[in-house]
Amino acid sequence: MLHCGKKHICAVVACILIFASILICSWKDPQLQKNITRKIFLQATTASPAGQLCHGKLVQNVITPLKDNRTFIISPYFDDRESKVTRVIGIVHHEDVKQLYCWFCCQPDGKIYVSNAKIDVHSDRFGFPYGAADIVCLEPENCDPTYVSIHQFPHGNIDQLPRFEIKNRKAQTFPVDFTVCISAMFGNYNNVLQFIQSMEMYKILGVQKVVIYKNNCSHLMEKVLKFYMEEGTVEIIPWPINSYLKVSSKWHFSMDEKDIGYYGQITALNDCIYRNMQRSKFVVLNDADEIILPLKHPDWKTMMSSLQEQNPGTGIFRFENHIFPETVSTQVFNISSWSSVPGVNILQHIHREPDRKEVYNARKMIVDPRQVIQTSVHSVLHAYGNSVNVPMDVALVYHCRVPLQRNLPRESLIRDTTLWRYNLSLIMNVNKVLYQTALLNSK
């Protein structure tokens, strides 16, 4: 017994000496001290660095680069659908960004808690080195943080970090039924007439809000956007992504070897879904030259009510895209007063290209945003609810643009006058906008 006791005492003394030597070495070696601190933070998802309270500059920009210039923060959103997390929508380099941390600001004590982030780069980068990403952090217990900072390290000076407001913290009843997300407006966009027609069609079909991620557009288009903003229909999200990355107007890296594809469209769409998660019953993901036209219903509200009744548990509804080439026109609704306004008159384009069975027909979507986790352009990548392809006899995407099947003769196209059902209201509403913006007198 006495011999065993001596062994025990020796073991205790040895442990004390080893621990003391580690502390002395760490005091002498700042790098080792940092590594020990790093391990402590990794082992505990919440910690409170001594003496640090909530500081840092509150960010107002839509796109904020971190110091590594490989991570770009768009906005953080509270997400409690599975567990209590902050989901930060961002853009990251898919290889270079390995580790990030959320620095939460907790009230009322004002302390900082650091949480290890899960970096989930979306699968649809299409070969580009940068892609949309979810930076997801568990929130600390007994804390409903209002602000968060994103950092490459679990230690540092909070005063040097940008601070982001966490949106969607407070649940609210949906003020609108339908919000259209358009991303991104670029290339000195000047298709003014078609844009106004699309906006007025959206309103006829039941849209209350249109969110546009705007990179740039013409002076005349700015005038139209200002009108719709003052009306309360349009919300503009500035999208100067080309100030930070080399952007492509193509969808795949093999077509244009830049940093990110199509002006970061996928990131903008994901941000738009989360931005409207608590304020819109449905979010519509399409471009400004696209209109989801119901064939069996007068508007989107009655159409979606019917589709939900027929498809319980479904949150994603995908509609077939059909090209109405702007190169093939009819003289019906050739309204002379509109000729001074730049852009396409969609009422004159009622012939659509036939389906090509061997070619993938891209779809656009109306989604319940609360059932979406990650989205791409034509489909949802991760969701809680089911996804359904809406039959063409229920609705289709009217897409008036340059033709895809350029060599088709006119007689091979399909005459489709569904759009004309709305012609009286559409012409009246477009004229009203043109007069109120004085565009009929613009040159």
Automatic annotation (TrEMBL):
<dbReference type="InterPro" id="IPR008166">
    <property type="entry name" value="Glyco_transf_92"/>
</dbReference>
<dbReference type="Pfam" id="PF01697">
    <property type="entry name" value="Glyco_transf_92"/>
</dbReference>
<dbReference type="GO" id="GO:0016757">
    <property type="term" value="F:glycosyltransferase activity"/>
</dbReference>
<keyword id="KW-0812">Transmembrane</keyword>
<dbReference type="GO" id="GO:0016020">
    <property type="term" value="C:membrane"/>
</dbReference>
<keyword id="KW-1133">Transmembrane helix</keyword>
<comment type="similarity">
    <text>Belongs to the glycosyltransferase 92 family.</text>
</comment>
<dbReference type="GO" id="GO:0005737">
    <property type="term" value="C:cytoplasm"/>
</dbReference>
<protein>
    <recommendedName>
        <fullName>Glycosyltransferase family 92 protein</fullName>
        <ecNumber>2.4.1.-</ecNumber>
    </recommendedName>
</protein>
<keyword id="KW-0808">Transferase</keyword>
<keyword id="KW-0328">Glycosyltransferase</keyword>
<keyword id="KW-0472">Membrane</keyword>
